[in-house]
Amino acid sequence: MEEIELKEKKVSHAIFQFLFPFSLLEGKEDDTANKLKENGYEWFRLDKLEKEDDYYGKYEIDHEDLENYYLPFTNRILFPKKEDGKGFQRYTKALGMKSTFKAPSYSAEFVIHSVDIFICPYQIGLLNVRLDLLNESELTYSEILDFGAKFRIMEEKNSITSVLCNGQSFEHVQEYIFECVIPDIKEYMSYKSEKSAYFESFPFFEDNRLYVQALISLDDDITEEDVYRLGNLDGFFQDKPYISTHNKEFVHSFIQEKAYTRWAPYTYILPESSGFFILTKQTGTELTRIANSFYGEFYYGLILTLFHKIVLLKLENNYSEIRIEQDTKKVEKLIHAINAFSSNYFFFELATQSEGRDIFVKLRDRFRVELLYEDTRNTLESLYQYQDNFTSKQSSSLLQILTLYSVITGIFGMNLMVENLDKDINWTSAFGSLSFYEYIALFVIVSGVAISVFLSIRYIAIWYMDKQERKKWRKQIEYPNTK
């Protein structure tokens, strides 16, 4: 078996985006949006062409090309035309904040160009930190990979890194992001687990690491080992380049299966479960074109796929917490949520171009979106079956009660007392002269009328409450803002 030999390489450019999904407080979507706008965030619209180069350092995205890249029904979700419309509401703020990442064997200076916060349906928020390494010419490829691997860890028990910003030192990335970069959002995040945890506001989430989107340009030729190391963020160990395998054949099969090699050997795209990676040796205008796609088409594809994964995990988690015999309303709400997701937000086809479709298919496969969706559809079928059985049982019981009253009333009430109802009745003497069977008939008639009135009122009340609840569910699921 051929041994893997690694040599250090120089990097001409390295840019990162770190994505953080979180849970919004229910009903606080409008307050969140208002707070963000008060603090300098702008609602993102494709028709604001003057913003094409405001948030991405020296790069820009073409809004018209971005819209044409996706299919129309996908555009309606990704780029809603109204702030209170259905879809992802993006709020962006340009920062230009310079900071320094301190590791035991190197320091990495970087600038945060801008921050995005998406207010999404299902009380889901997505936060994105967009940064550019400033001294990539001094950092080796291994050190840049190590930076990506360490920066994505929100909190470590025994941290060996720190971030310096505005004279302050933060031991954990979590503290740096929520105290220095984006202090505006903390009060609107849902804490359902440990108070010190953010990812645990999703009790079903995998770990406490950020999702990474990285574009790295090398000065040297790209090898399969370089691509593998980027996909796994294998930095260095004991000041030497590190790779998490010793099998060269394994690396080759990994690249063949998971990497998109249409533009190899110059550019490799690797959609992975931990993020979305691009490794290239292109320079000049070609690198600019790749970076524009990195910030535009690929970014939104990752956002949408990550949203699909989170919602499907959330629906499965909600199903596991339901006491199906008692939580009938929760069952109805879950059925509504699954149907709304399937009809409004889940699309098998996203992009209009063939390379976009191929890349996003790989990304969805790495995120296991299709498998999660099949599980959710099976859950929906189980819920429908239970609801049908429960409704049938309720209807059968009610029908038996009403049939019983009709029969008894026909036997007793109509035959014994109805003829007395067409004339004036002295109720005092009438009650005193009734026989035992007439008392039974009177009770049946009065209770039957009372039950009918009660059922009618109950039906109207349930109908009104259901209507209000479904309106509330629709606002929560389809329209994250309710202005």
UniProtKB/TrEMBL annotation:
The chain crosses the membrane at residues 398-416, 436-465. Keywords: Membrane, Transmembrane, Transmembrane helix. It comes from the Bacteria. This is Group-specific protein. It comes from Pradoshia eiseniae.
